[in-house]
Amino acid sequence: MAQKIGKDLERFHKLVDGKIKNNLGKYITRGHMIGKQGKDLVRIPVPQIDLPRFNFGNKGSGGVGQGDGEPGQPLTQPQQGEGEGGAGDQGGGHILEVERSLDQMVEMLAEVLKLPNLEPKGKKNIVVDGNKVKPHHSKKNVRVLRKRTFLEGLRRYLATLPPGTYDPLKHPLIRQREDLWTANLVPKELPVAQAAILHMMDVSGSMTDEQKETVRIESFWIDSWIKKHYKGVESVYIIHDAEAKEVDEHTFYHTTESGGTKISAAYALCDQIITKRYPPEEWNNYAFHYSDGDNWGDDTPRAIQIIKEHLLPKVNLFAYGQVESPYGSGEFIQYLEEMITGKNNFRVSRIPDRDGVLNSIKELLG
Questions:
Q1: Domain range for residue 7?
Q2: Are residues 142 and 264 in the same domain?
Q3: Where are the alpha helices (DSSP H) in the chain?
Q4: 73 occurs within a structural domain
């Protein structure tokens, strides 16, 4: 019975996950998921799922295949309800709230978008929980190696019997203290790929609150996806208008500022941080910039120069996402599209609104 219940529960979870995947774009753009950390659970409303089942009536109460009938007689009779006829104003559907961890949501995101696994480049030796088992013959109870202990006892016991006479039913194995084998856990240095994610966002006056919220949603899911591939991930958050500054995660997701726009200021600060803290020979660096594409005066050539000469040689990926704006020209992405050809670690994407987040993530990471 328990096995049958387990299969039914597994089938139910697959149906629920299928519903979530079909409407993934709607679920991942919900603002309340931003700020969740680790394996925190989120509640997701999905349409009620009714599993097919049989309803049994009372014996002798009639029904299909019972009693006499007339040609052309309907198999069932319409049932009359107690309510009044006419249209109602109340919802008749049922909503089921299910819990899923952020890790599960990220896995669904990767499956739906068919995101490839990231390929680490920079590596750095650090002490991790990859303990090395060192077997030894000891009386100390460190960690018993059961299989080796059994074989040692069997080998000793067989040596006391004439060849070919051992019968496990007649000669039960009695273990001795000298048969015990244990193991010490010795920490060792392991090469572990580390990553730094550098998020840059334009917070100038031409960026509306809705655009900033779209950026925060996309950067949150990209951040979560990259963290699945590395141990020891560090995230950097940079906001800019005419000037750039590094901020904490909360400020990045909630700041509201105004002013002009100089994109090169963010790129220059990003380059400085990589050079000082995340050398590319040891770190896998991922840089993402989001803007409405409205840049100040002749700053665009300077920004492109920093990308070509400083950022692209130091990062696994440089990605630019441009959100549509009712203000400004939005010309910056056109200059980047002209230089993207032939550069495997350079991606650009246009983000019309929240509904475009899913497609933009695929363009930047797919």
A1: 1-53+94-114
A2: no
A3: 2-22, 24-28, 102-113, 146-158, 209-227, 249-254, 263-277, 299-306, 332-339, 357-365
A4: no
